[in-house]
Structures are given as C-alpha cells and as structure tokens.
Amino acid sequence: MQNDLIHRGRGRARHAGLHCARMFRKATRQSDVYAFGAVLLEVVCGLRPGTKIGRFQLLVDWVWSLHREGHLLEAVEERIGDEYVVEEAKKVLLLALACSHPIAGERPRTQEIVQIISGSVPVPYVPPFKPAFTWPSMPMEEEDSSLENTAETRSFPTTHLGSG
C-alpha cells in the first residue's frame, strides 16, 4: 500500500509545495513537509485538501477530529473497501497529521519521514487534539525594547478554524 500511496501522490506533491510557497512567499523545509502531509491525506482519503466535510472547511481538520474520536480509519477512501493493510493506513494518516502540525518546528524532518515510511522508526506521537497555532517569536526592534518582558509567542486556538 505505501508504495501505491507514494506513487499516486508524487505529481501532486510538487503542486502542493508550489502552492504553499506562493502563499508564504518562500518555500521552506517546513512548507514542503506540510505539503507532503496534504498529499498523503489527499491520496488516502480520496479528497482534496480544501474539501468541505460536514462542519469542517479543511480535510486535515476532519481527519484530526476522527483521530480525536478514535475513528481515524474512517478517513480511508471508501472505494478502497477492505483492500488495504490497516496498520499501514493508520501509519500514513498519523504521519500526514504530524506533517500538518500547525507549528512548523514540530513537524517531522524529511529524514524522519523517510524512516517512518520505510518502517525503521515509528510514527511520532500525534495528540488527539489539533495543537493551537503559535506565532514564532520575533526579534525585538530597538524602539520596542520596552516590550522585552512580554510573552515571546502567542497561541490561538484553531478549533473554530475550518469548522462551519
């Protein structure tokens, strides 16, 4: 299954990566990993990343809710039927969620992704709730030195983002 999944999504990875690069004006390792996660979800679920499903505006939010509810395998494309290895599908879906982590620095590195796909290392822990997005800390300007003691990051819950 894993080779079929990777083969089916190969052409889309480049497109998704370019889309992320256009959105953020710069392609980075983290944007490439996020795009790879989107491609994995698209291939396994048979749906485009922007597909609205019920109250969810994005595929990744729907899959994260299935993971939280303990029904992750319900995300597998229905047309596949029972023609897949359950543990492989679960591994790929969890890897996709790890790659889609809202905090770029928490996403797996490319080498780790290869090791996960090959089976030499397990999928990293994926929390049942989608973590909140946190703005990265920015260096202070000299004129802003009076703000030095303020928090370096800001968290915003994403539970309402993507839900209708």
From TrEMBL:
<feature type="compositionally biased region" description="Polar residues">
    <location>
        <begin position="147"/>
        <end position="164"/>
    </location>
</feature>
<dbReference type="InterPro" id="IPR050528">
    <property type="entry name" value="L-type_Lectin-RKs"/>
</dbReference>
<keyword id="KW-0547">Nucleotide-binding</keyword>
<feature type="region of interest" description="Disordered">
    <location>
        <begin position="140"/>
        <end position="164"/>
    </location>
</feature>
<dbReference type="GO" id="GO:0005524">
    <property type="term" value="F:ATP binding"/>
</dbReference>
<keyword id="KW-0067">ATP-binding</keyword>
<dbReference type="InterPro" id="IPR011009">
    <property type="entry name" value="Kinase-like_dom_sf"/>
</dbReference>
<protein>
    <recommendedName>
        <fullName>Concanavalin A-like lectin protein kinase family protein</fullName>
    </recommendedName>
</protein>
